[in-house]
Amino acid sequence: MSNENIFSRQISNKSSTLSSVRTAGIHLSGPNANKTALVVASGNPRHAPVEISQVYEKIGAYGTLFSDDRLVELLLHHGPFAAVFVDCPLTLPPCVACQRPICPGAVQCDDVAVAYMLAISSRVRRRGARKARPVNPQSQRVWDVMQLNQDEGEAQEPTYSANLAPLVTRARTLQRRLNAMSPRIELLETQVANAIEFMREPLGLPDHARQNYRRFETGLAMRQGILGAMIGAHLVAPMNPSLSDQLCGSVEVFHAFISTVVASLQSSGLTQQRPDHYRDVDGWVYLPEMSIWPSLGASRG
């Protein structure tokens, strides 16, 4: 076999490996709801659009099987995965995670995360850009405070609110189930509204995309518009109308879809990575890294 043929085969094998990278996105619903969804995709966004291969919705309890049992079986069936993302918090606020028998109060606390949160809030107050939002380590994580105190940030639900706390518990329970799998599956976290906002300008989405995709009156059209923009930008591969309708038909499935897109971006090195100064703190949330986005469309033509 000539060197040229060997080289061609190596390039072909490399492209096949890159395009076969498999990821999954999960929308977790409450323990008594029937709205958990899973979307499986393959592809490397650096080299080719992401292809959606499987969509599962309404993964609730069935007979003696809990929803988590069914979800684990689906992940084992379709894996292995380069990344599996969920759309809810995976870690606890420092006060909820604390095991100390005596609480000295937030100001006197020696927990790194609490000190970090207070330091971020203090810097914002000193800058005087605007009134600092209250910091509460009982319901917020460091990531929450970092987002809320950015100049361009906007109010969002704390990690341990009444709505999210049951999902945090379920996500952590699911992770413990997956820790026993071989190979082990590690869940990573994204935040769908923020992910849409980070993709808004490169995809040419309207300013209100992150709010309107959930609304009853305008949500379906907005979700369809976001999916169409992703296809137009060659981030997601074209698909048949029935699959498009399934991805956009409900907020829950759409959340799983966005989560697997972020998973594909993360496995390709196209998400914001944890900064060095954050290494001793839990709770990083992966979001698309748009600074290199313009090169993708140009490289794919």
State the shape: globular
Q: Span between N and C termini? A: 33 Å
- Give the strand order, joined by hyphens, for the main sheet: 3-2-1-4-5
Strands, count: 5
Mean pLDDT: 85
Radius of gyration: 21 Å
**How many domains make up the 3D coordinates?**
2
CATH class of the largest domain: Alpha Beta
What's the CATH superfamily of the largest domain, by name?
A: Ribonuclease H-like superfamily/Ribonuclease H
Poorly predicted regions are 1-18
What's the total helix number? 12
Largest sheet: 5 strands, mixed
**Strand and helix order:** HEEEHEHHHHEHHHHHH
Percentage of β-strand residues: 5-15%
CATH architecture of the largest domain: 2-Layer Sandwich
Question: What is the structural class?
Answer: alpha/beta
CATH topology of the largest domain: Nucleotidyltransferase, domain 5
Explained architecture:
This protein is of the alpha/beta class and 301 residues long. The protein folds into 2 domains: 19-91 and 160-300, Ribonuclease H-like superfamily/Ribonuclease H (Nucleotidyltransferase, domain 5, 2-Layer Sandwich), CATH 3.30.420; 94-148, no CATH class. Helix content is 45%, strand content 8%. The chain has 12 helices and 5 strands. It has a 5-stranded mixed beta sheet, sandwiched between helices. A hairpin with an 8-residue loop joins strand 2 (37-42) and strand 3 (51-56). The longest helix has 17 residues, at 3-19. The chain is globular and about 60 Å long. The two termini are 33 Å apart.
